[in-house]
């Protein structure tokens, strides 16, 4: 797992996204690729504002889905690694400024 709890995750500003019926849809700016996220992915996606640390996201997952910290960490890491591989997010060592 490449993510560290102290990292912050920032959505790629080149992507457009919308929530429809609690599901996130991410569209490339060229409009040639659409990503549809499930309930868990959509919940995490909404937290990827660059102000939430990975640790905070894990805590939110534990609370929302009533899972253990280990399960939440594994789910968050797996999901974000996929987003990173597709260029949908970036990692940051510091939170974004307000």
CATH topology: Arc Repressor Mutant, subunit A
Tally of contiguous helical segments: 3
Mean pLDDT: 90
Please name the CATH architecture.
Answer: Orthogonal Bundle
Q: What separation lies between the terminal Cα atoms?
A: 29 Å
Number of strand elements: 6
Give the overall silhouette.
globular
Helix content: 25-40%
Sheet with the most strands, sense and barrel status: 3 strands, antiparallel
Low-confidence stretches: none
Strand portion, in percent? 25-35%
Strand order of the largest sheet: 5-1-6
In CATH, what is the class?
Mainly Alpha
Number of domains: 1
Structural class by sheet pairing and helices: alpha+beta
What's the helix and strand layout?
Blueprint: E1 8-11, E2 15-20, E3 23-28, E4 34-36, H1 39-47, E5 49-53, H2 54-65, H3 69-85, E6 89-92
Antiparallel strand pairs: 1-5, 1-6, 2-3, 3-4
